[in-house]
Amino acid sequence: MSITDNVINTALLGTANRELSAEDLPEDLGDTLSKIKETAADGEDLFYKIAAAFFAYYRSGLEPLNLKDPIPVTVAEPETMPYPGKKAAALLGMLLGEKYVHMLLLWYKTAAERGYLIPAEYLLDVLERAFLPGSQTAKCEKRLLASLIGNRGRWLLPLMNYPPMQEEGNEDWETATHADRKSILSRVRESDPPRGIELLRTEWKNEPAQHRAELLECLKTGLSKSDEEFLESVRAGDRSSTVRDTALDLLRRIPDSAIVGLYARTLKQHLHYRRLLGWSVDPVAYSDEFKKAGINEVSSNKGESDSDYILRQMAECVPLSFWSEILECDLETAARRMRKSPPFSKYIHLENAIFNFNDRQWAYYWLKGERVLQHPELLPLVPMLSVGQREELNLEGKAQQNFYVMQWLDDNDEEWGENFSRGVLKMIYSMTYCYYDRPTCEQLALRLPVSLLGYIGELGAAKENSGSHWEFTVRMQQLIQIKKDIQEGFTADV
Amino acid sequence: MQLSEEQIIKLAPDAASVKAGKGLASAAKWVLRGASGRALWGHCQGSGANPYQTQVDLQNIAFKCSCPSRKFPCKHSLGLLFLYASQPDLFSTGEEPAWVVEWLDKRVNKAAEKKEKSDKPVDAEAQAKRLEARHRKVLGGAEDLQGWLRDLARNGLLNVPERARELFEGIAKRMVDAQAPGLAGMMRQLQEINYFGEDWKYLLTALLSKAYLVAESYKHLGRLPGEWQDEIRTLVGYPQSKEEVLAKGQTVTDDWYVVGTESLQQDRLTVEYNWLYGRQSKKYALFLQFIMAGALPEIAFMPGNVVRADLTFYRGIDPTRVLVREQRGPGEIFPVTDGSAGYAGLSEAMRYFREKLTVNPFLHEVPVIVSGVRFAVHEGQFWLRDRDWRFVALGAGESARLKGLAVTGGREFTGFFMAGERVWRALSLWIDDKYYTLNNEHNG
To answer: By three-state DSSP, how is residue B242 classified?
Structure first.
């Protein structure tokens, strides 16, 4: 029982019900109590004065606690990596303050590449951001932060009631959620595609159909002939048509798969090319084999015969090497000829094949020499090109008003070359109205070289009467400057 | 004057301004950046055609910006300060432009006018009459309060929690009518007790008895020594006029370390608590400022900085509250983490706390610097532990608590605390030769 209890109990019950007596108080207060009693007007007056004396007495004896079972104290392990300099740290503070999500991610990436940690004073904000419910970038932030928060951050996570952050590759497939499994699978496929199939096989039969289909989609990464056996088994035996269709779609993306081989053989028998006469077609009859190979029988277009339709579907699913063989020329010439005069020219979309095989070289040949902006069907192929290939693109002319640069901002935020960047900027400034939201501007700034800062100013000055262009100019200049600061902030290590 | 990020954050009106200000702390946002010994200035490019003209008085922190923001200081002023704090080399150090010189001169003239006004003599007779009338009113109020408290004690406090708000509001209003705002504040403090916590019985009884004793002491004011009269009058709510304090209070010239600041928002009024620690005097001083929304603080103390100043203490028992008689410019940072300031360990600090309470039992909290301590968390409770494995409970907001943990990593540090009888509050700390504030809600 605490020595304060007697006084408090009297206060709670009321002096009408319980009187505070000398026995309730420490002996030391005996004299004080007697003096107070002599002058007290009534019981309540006496109570308050005694209580005041008592609390003063109690406080005058306060000591820090000496606990029987001491509270465990943990200390974060010392860091093995350095903290960045003042400039980089200040930039981080600035980026956390503003809503520059992509620039923040660039800071994280740069810090990770150069082996720096998040300064301790920013850990709280950084972690709160990464665990913010509903954040679209949380996953990416956590992935980058796993190596940036250091021992201090890892020590802090449980104290903030957050789960541990696992570095990439350390996740457990067995216990992962479906969303996590998809990301694990995609990542594994990048480095070790056969291991991805092994992972899939472990829980394949227990997964629901929708999940199976979504997991199969992840095989697009690192897809090759070695996946054919698994995909064929799925296509032949899975109980869900969605899963079977997904497997078929994937098989069509493997240039040397049996199914693509079937298409190639059929096309070789029925499609002929003669230098002077061009393409000729021998009609083909629909068969069960075609049906199993995912070929439809009847065209929805009255102007296209069913035979042409069957062959056209196959033609849209064979690789460039096939056309090179048929046309008896090298790949680049084949691509050029096919672009100029393909078979079934009225309806064929060979861009589908380029996408299917994710054939960067074919896309490059396809776009080379074209005035890309004049052909809307070519625009989606641009992100497939490498930085060097994009430099050779012809971006002359005016883009259509509904063109939105966002479609050229792929997942890979590698910096573009100067020619391509200039072309993109010219195109943006040539449009009547130029509104780009902050995230798009950020993504664009990540790709534009810092050396174009002055060029943006020039383009902006030429459009100074347009409010939307002015706003875009100011924003882009600011963002590119920030990007420059991030790059130099770490370089200088100041 | 070179300010740290922490210090600038303290100047911001809210967390949103800090965020927005940090967003502007980039060279890309400023088309003009300049600095001199007494001011910073810049042109911030917004989305409009004309940039905003922003200037900061560095000698006696003040801001001016041509933006239409109602916040003060605005994000541009904060952004300029943040940028200067992180990259001073980006600022040209040429001559101040005319618009900056004009503003600075205006400020100097205004300060001189203000001083002139305050030197005017007061009508002593009228003042004495007013004081006498007030004394009678307060006496009546003290009598009423005691009567009311006696009724409360007679019936018991068991049913207070469910009616605390209405119960104490009425008597608080009566105390305001009786011109005893100090007593009214004590009654309102009773409304703020956490009646769902375990401690409410103790706090309620202790605070009621304290209020009763203050009222009783006021009734017998004439029998008390001079210092106690001042103390009781202050507790009841009599203000000590600035002139009176400057004329009669003890003045201490020293290098004062701004060890912590706190802000309390009350509607449109911000009460700013600046805690200072004297290098030679080893005294703690509290400089209070009452700032209306949109108004400038008279003096801006930067936590973590040292200011050379003459501080005059208010009268009372072992007073801490001060007025700034004269600021003599920035002082040199002096060490507080090497044991030359404050106490090593909690037992020593607690002894100091007890001594202070023995001198003035009405004290609520005692400022103290303690070194060799570390944070500990156990079952949701936050503790402070010293090398002898002694503990005190810490009361702190979630973000302050986590910030303390983040910057210390569980290691030993030197901290500035407000020591209370039930819990201590950590306001700031020093670790790895860096100073961090913990209490401000828009930290970091």
So the answer is: helix
Structurally, chain A folds into a number of domains equal to 5
**Residues of chain B with C-beta less than 8 angstroms from the C-beta of A485:** 26-28
Tell me how far CA of residue A278 lies from CA of A117, A251, A341, B234, B414, in angstroms.
Answer: 64, 30, 8, 105, 87
Asked if B153 and A11 count as a contact pair (C-beta separation under 8 A), the reply is yes
pLDDT, tens digit, 9 for 90 and up, residues B328-357: 888 888 988 887 888 999 999 999 999 999
Q: What is the ipTM of this complex?
A: 0.77
Q: Is A301 helix (H, G, I), strand (E, B) or coil?
A: coil
Helix segments in B119-180, DSSP class H:
124-155, 164-177
Q: Say how far apart CA A249 and CA A317 lie, in whole Å.
A: 10
- A73 belongs to a structural domain: no
In this structure, which topology does domain B249-330 adopt according to CATH?
OB fold (Dihydrolipoamide Acetyltransferase, E2P) (2.40.50)
Task: Write down which residue in A233, A252, A271 finishes a domain.
Answer: A252
- The identity of residue A475, as a single letter, is R
- How far is the C-alpha of A323 from the C-alpha of A384, rounded, in Å? 20
Assigned domain for A53 exists: yes
CA A40 to chain centre: 76
Q: Taking a C-beta distance cutoff of 8 angstroms, is the pair B108, B100 a contact?
A: no
With a CB-CB cutoff of 8 Å, which residues 16-75 of chain A face chain B? 16-17, 42-45, 47-49, 51-52, 55-56, 58-67, 70-75
Residue A72 belongs to some domain of the structure: no
Instruction: Select from B270, B386, B251, B269 the least CA-distant residue to B314.
Output: B251
Minimal Cβ distance to B20: which of A44, A51, A97: A97
Residue A16 lies in a domain: yes
Domain that holds residue A306: 255-368
Whether pLDDT at A461 is above 80: yes
Angle B147-B150-B156 (CA atoms, 0-180°, nearest 5)? 145
Q: What is the pLDDT of residues A166-201, one digit of tens each?
A: 665 556 788 888 888 888 898 899 889 999 999 889
Which chain B residue shows the shortest CA-CA distance from A77? B409
Residue that has been written with the tokens 């199993």 in this structure = A292
Same-domain pairing of A11 and A102: no
Beta carbons within 10 angstroms of residue A24's beta carbon: 18
Which of B23, B49, B421 shows the shortest C-beta gap to A98? B23
Backbone angles phi, psi at B382, to 5 degrees: -100, 130
Compute the distance between CA of residue B49 and CA of residue A464 in angstroms, rounded to an integer: 9
In chain B, the N- to C-terminal Cα span, in Å, equals 21
Domain shared by A93 and A111, yes or no: yes
Chain A and chain B share a number of CB contacts under 8 A equal to 209
Distance CA B154, CA B208 (A): 13
What is the distance between the alpha carbons of residues A199 and A35, in angstroms, rounded to a whole number?
Answer: 85
> Could you tell me what percent of chain B has a pLDDT over 70?
94
Contact assessment for residue A365 and residue A337, using Cβ atoms and an 8 Å cutoff: no
In chain B, what are the domain boundaries?
A: 5-118, 124-236, 249-330, 343-437
pLDDT digits (tens, 9 = 90+) for B303-333: 898 999 999 999 999 999 999 999 888 888 8
- Nearest residue in chain A measured CA to CA from B26: A482
Q: Measured between alpha carbons, how far is A278 from B427 in angstroms, rounded to an integer?
A: 85
> How far apart, in whole angstroms, are the C-alpha atoms of residue B350 and residue A93?
37
Kindly provide the b/e burial profile for residues A276-308, where b requires at least 16 CB atoms within 10 angstroms of the residue's own CB.
eeeeebeebeeeeebeebbbeeebeeeeeeebb
By the CB < 8 Å criterion, does B216 face chain A?
yes
Could you tell me if B90 lies within 8 Å of chain A, comparing CB atoms?
A: no
Task: State pLDDT tens for residues B6-50.
Answer: 677 777 877 778 878 887 887 778 888 999 888 999 999 776 678
Residues of B in contact with A55 (CB under 8 A): 205-206, 209-210, 361
